[in-house]
Every structure is written in structure tokens, then in C-alpha cells.
Amino acid sequence: MKTTPPGTDAPATPQPRIDFDTRKALLFALTAERLSAYYEHGQWMTDGQGATLAGLWLSRSKLQLALAERRLLSQLSDDFARQLAGTLSREAGLYVSHDMMEALDPNYQSAVAHDMLDECARLLRENGVME
User: Fold this and answer.
1) Chain centroid offset of residue 20 CA
2) DSSP class of 61
3) Does 13 fall in a domain?
4) What is the spatial distance between Cα 98 and Cα 102, in angstroms, rounded to a whole number?
């Protein structure tokens, strides 16, 4: 039986690769959380909070993403959420925020959520995250 000497790290097992769809879903979820927090509490989540939240979600699925990539997704979600809040009436923003939060449940289907997912994919491509 082979053992690892005390004080040394065991060989790292390769982490599953994060694909485009996972990044898109993460961007969508972060945007939904940001909008929800904004409309419920009147303040925006920081980029650091968004990157930490992304890391927590990924760890639940035993996935990892480099901090720089988590920060990029956090920044993109902030830009997207602020754009939505700035172009929608409060009532429409509340509706979109609620619909996006509901769509975090995979059993919930919504045309608005599909449109927001498409926009997330576009934002990722524009920022160099390819399929």
C-alpha cells in the first residue's frame, strides 16, 4: 500500500472542465442574484461577492474555475444586471428578476429566461469566452 508522507500534498486529481453552457448558466445565475438583491435591498453586490458566490456554487458540483474567470463572470453579471435595471421600469425589472430567480429551478420554463440565457451567451462570446 502506497501512502503519502505527512506534510506533502497528494497528487491533484484533475477537475472537470467547465464548458460554455456551465459558464453561461453561472453568468445567468449571478445576474439573477444581483438583480434580486438590488430590487429587494436597494444595493448592488460587489464583484468580490459575486466571484465568491460563483465559487460556492461551483464547489457544490465539485467544479472549479480560476479566480480571474470567476471575477470576469462577476463583472459581466454586474454590467448586465445594471443594464437591465437601467433600461426597465421598476415593475418590469422586478418581473424579470423574479422570473430569472424562478428559472434557476431547471423545471421552470420561461421565454424571458431563455432570452436572458441567449444574452448571457452573447456577452460571453463578446468577451472572449468561446464555445
Assistant:
1) 12
2) T
3) no
4) 6
For the chain, list residues with pLDDT below 70. 1-17, 131
What pLDDT is stored for residue 112 in this prediction? 95
Question: What pLDDT score does 65 carry?
Answer: 87
Over the stretch 22-41, which tens digit does the pLDDT of each residue have? 999 999 999 999 999 999 99
- Count: domains in the chain: 1
Cα(88)–Cα(96) distance, integer angstroms: 9
Contacts of residue 125, defined as CB under 8 A and 6 or more positions apart, other chains included, come to 131
Any domain includes 40: yes
CB atoms within 10 A of CB 91: 8
Where in the sequence is the domain holding 36, given as residue range(s)? 20-126
Are residues 54 and 26 in contact, defined by beta-carbon separation less than 8 angstroms? yes
